[in-house]
Specification:
The chain has helices spanning 4-31, 34-54; strands at 70-75, 81-86, 91-95, 100-105. The chain has a four-stranded antiparallel beta sheet, with no helix packed on it. It is elongated, with a radius of gyration of 30 Å. Helix content is 42%, strand content 19%. The chain is of the alpha+beta class. Keywords: Repeat, WD repeat.
Length: 118
């Protein structure tokens, strides 16, 4: 039923359909109306990152109390407290408004690697 020339044409037609579908997909991505908006937002973000890198680094205060490096922190949902975990096997709760330690949790057998406050 198929001769050799028909067998050669059918794959070419199928390949042509695949190429047209790919080209149509690429065209849809380029023609989306939100592309310009997305590009502008990306430019703003990159500009912010660039500006942030040249701004002077500053901080409000240092909370001292751990005997080893702090490996994780977590803020309370209301933003009033900070929990810090350290390689010294301690978790400390800090009152941020008063910039002081509220309490220390002891008893871990190894350094604290992660935590979360709910």
């Amino acid at each position: 039923m198929f001769n050799s020339s028909t067998e050669k044409i059918v794959p070419e037609i199928e390949e042509s359909k695949k190429i047209q579908a790919l080209q149509a997909g690429q065209k849809q991505i380029v023609d989306k109306p939100n592309t310009d908006v997305a590009l502008e937002e990306l430019k703003k973000t990159l500009n912010f990152i660039e500006m942030e890198s040249i701004l002077p680094k500053s901080y409000v205060s240092t909370l001292r109390g751990h005997n080893s490096e702090v490996s994780c922190v977590s803020f309370s949902p209301d933003g009033r407290f900070l929990a810090s975990g350290s390689k010294d096997e301690l978790i400390k709760i800090w009152n941020l408004a008063e910039k002081r330690e509220e309490c220390t949790f002891k008893g871990h057998n190894s350094g604290i690697n992660s935590m979360a406050i709910f």
